[in-house]
């Protein structure tokens, strides 16, 4: 491995320290990553918009600021790529849709602005499924993103371009969003780390429905500490966001523990019989339970009662799709993919009573989950129910021999958890015998984001699965 490649696969925490201590310049770091993007991205298709000239100029400005002794943020000089559903001022943002092929927003949305304020340098945009719908990254504008561990297989989605870029060393840190698994699924498929924070931990602005808690934004990285560093920059209140939590972000970057003495762990291999899971995934994760015991935890097989989670997620998602895309679908039915049309149509057919019943179920689910976490500190489960599948396949129609009703069925290991309001971390959980990554989902009580980072970090340090990089 060349020195340049070594630099591009080191943790973001290390790279930030190297730049801050002036052992590596931001320009050197940027040039190394741009060189790697030029060599590897054509095959991966992870980054779909690139501004190399602007990134180099921003890196030079970052070095000048550091040399002048000016204050710098925690991500100073780190290259970052933004999800192509997140508005970037002055840079094309397509939402993976031909309807926005030439759209250039006037300003950054909040998640982009916060990374910029922390010192990160924008290099470009990462690929997404159309309007971030579905957990396989492909669209008619840019095509499919390939998995760095196996060309021809999906990188997951909807933050699939971000996960692939991280795994391949194209950027050291990234961000995404997650309604039904879009930060977790691609992290699992690409052997990186993705955090779905507690709703409101990372405020989303602008948002059409600011009160909704179904979709969140959050950080991705190659290590849990990198994700914690990203969260430290992204978290914190915003007065324009009605659900934003008041806690500041900076404390999330504090050092993470490497032992779990006294931790009470619940293990739910199929979420209490709710989801079918490919036996190859279960086999890999079952082998890891001893790691938690060795780290000082107790492990029991148990799961909260997730009754009503499907109704809450399905109804509220459909309602959001109608609110967000209903008019678009009606005006341009031939330019919106079928799954979005289907989901918006489901939303249009809902009654007020349907939404009311879903919110009642949602509330009862939350109360049961809070009671469950009085007995346990974390819940472990598979992140995904399937292994990465061929890019030509839009979505799996069966899981472990069980037919799936729609394009969301194979993602229920994540969608059921989204409905609970709990923070959930996908951390590398091992590999199948033929080398495909498997993700472990670490779920905490609502607002216990720091706890899931602590548990994920200790597991990561004990196993080292995340250090196994793809052969590119």
Q: Mind explaining what this structure looks like?
A:
It comes from Modestobacter caceresii. This protein is of the alpha+beta class. It contains 15 helices and 17 strands. Strands 1-3-2-8-10-9-16-17-13-11-12 form an eleven-stranded mixed beta sheet, sandwiched between helices. A hairpin with a 2-residue loop joins strand 6 (146-147) and strand 7 (150-154).
Instruction: Please write the CATH class name.
Output: Alpha Beta
**CATH topology (level 3) name:** Amidase signature (AS) enzymes
* Model regions low in confidence, pLDDT < 50 over at least 5 residues: none
Give the tally of β-strands.
Answer: 17
Count of domains: 1
Tell me the radius of gyration: 21 Å
Structural class by helix and strand composition: alpha+beta
Residues in β-strands, percent? 15-25%
Helix fraction by DSSP (H/I, runs of at least 4): 25-40%
Tell me the span between the first and last alpha carbons. 11 Å
Strand order of the largest sheet: 1-3-2-8-10-9-16-17-13-11-12
CATH superfamily caption: Amidase signature (AS) domain
CATH architecture: Alpha-Beta Complex
Helices, by number, come to 15
Largest sheet: 11 strands, mixed
Protein name: Amidase
GO molecular function: catalytic activity
Organism: Modestobacter caceresii
Domain Amidase: 28-453
């Amino acid at each position: 491995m060349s020195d340049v490649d070594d630099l591009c696969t080191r943790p973001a925490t290390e790279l930030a320290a190297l730049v801050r201590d002036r052992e590596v310049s931001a320009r050197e770091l940027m040039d190394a990553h741009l060189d790697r993007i030029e060599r590897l991205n054509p095959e991966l298709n992870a980054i779909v918009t690139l501004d190399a000239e602007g990134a180099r100029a921003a890196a030079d400005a970052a070095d000048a600021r550091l040399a002048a002794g000016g204050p710098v943020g925690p991500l100073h000089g780190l290259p970052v790529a933004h999800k192509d559903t997140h508005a970037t001022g002055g840079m094309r943002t397509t939402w993976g849709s031909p309807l926005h092929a030439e759209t250039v927003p006037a300003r950054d949305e909040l998640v982009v602005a916060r990374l910029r304020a922390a010192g990160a340098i924008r290099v470009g945009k990462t690929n997404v499924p159309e309007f971030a719908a579905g957990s396989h990254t492909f669209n008619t504008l840019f095509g499919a993103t390939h998995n760095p561990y196996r060309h021809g297989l999906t990188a997951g989605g909807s933050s699939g371009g971000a996960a692939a870029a991280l795994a391949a060393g194209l950027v050291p840190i990234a961000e995404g969003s997650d309604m039904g698994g879009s930060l977790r699924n691609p992290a699992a498929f690409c052997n990186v780390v993705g955090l779905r924070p507690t709703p409101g931990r990372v405020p989303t602005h602008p948002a059409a429905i600011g009160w909704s808690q179904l979709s969140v934004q959050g950080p991705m990285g190659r290590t849990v500490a990198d994700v914690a560093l990203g969260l430290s920059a992204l978290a914190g209140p915003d007065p324009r966001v009605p659900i934003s939590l008041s806690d500041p972000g900076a404390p999330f970057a504090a050092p993470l523990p490497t032992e779990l003495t006294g931790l009470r762990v619940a293990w739910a291999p199929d979420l209490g019989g709710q989801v079918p899971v490919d036996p190859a995934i279960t086999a890999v994760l079952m082998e890891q339970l001893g790691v938690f015991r060795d780290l000082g935890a107790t492990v029991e097989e148990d799961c909260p009662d997730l009754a009503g989670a499907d109704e809450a997620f399905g109804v509220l998602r459909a309602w959001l799709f109608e609110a967000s895309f209903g008019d678009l679908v009606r005006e341009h039915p031939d330019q919106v993919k079928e799954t979005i049309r289907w989901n918006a149509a489901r939303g249009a057919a809902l009654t007020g009573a349907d939404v009311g019943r879903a919110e009642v179920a949602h509330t009862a689910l939350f109360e049961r989950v809070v009671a469950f976490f009085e007995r346990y500190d974390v819940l472990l489960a598979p992140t995904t129910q399937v292994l990465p599948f061929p890019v030509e396949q839009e979505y799996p129609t069966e899981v472990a021999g069980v037919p799936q009703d729609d394009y969301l069925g194979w993602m229920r290991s994540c969608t059921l958890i989204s409905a609970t309001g709990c923070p959930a971390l996908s951390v590398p959980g091992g590999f199948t015998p033929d080398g495909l990554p498997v993700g472990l989902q670490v779920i905490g009580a609502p607002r216990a984001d720091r706890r899931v980072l602590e548990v994920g970090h200790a597991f990561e340090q004990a196993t080292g699965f995340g250090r196994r990089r793809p052969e590119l």
